[in-house]
């Protein structure tokens, strides 16, 4: 099980290093694992690994803001042991990227864009693209590469 693997491969070896600085463990893309049940099982296993003794570990969980993951972190199980990070800045950065790149495409694609008014795309379309990106540049860069392809 995931809980057994976490205990045997991570928690127990780390118990020997209780007086040292904490180690960081990054789990990137939790939402990309197969199924909601697996997401919640991983989060429960991480939380259970800290009982009965606190470990010199810090977990960073990177994930899209899926409702079931958010609910797990808001549950009493995680009360007082997690800190959410505000991703608003990444959304702002993606918006700036989209604005700059769409403006460049509008300037450089003379024939295609000659009859398209600026600003392009419309602000509500830009807002939808930023929202759909979930703050991830990979989404934004894929859109720009597609639109920029002459």
From TrEMBL:
UniProt-listed InterPro entries: NPHP3-like_N
Keyword Repeat on entry: yes
Keywords tagged on the record: Repeat
One Pfam family this sequence matches: NPHP3_N
Occurrences of domain Nephrocystin 3-like N-terminal (ranges): 4-64
Highest taxon of source: Eukaryota
Protein's UniProt name: Nephrocystin 3-like N-terminal domain-containing protein
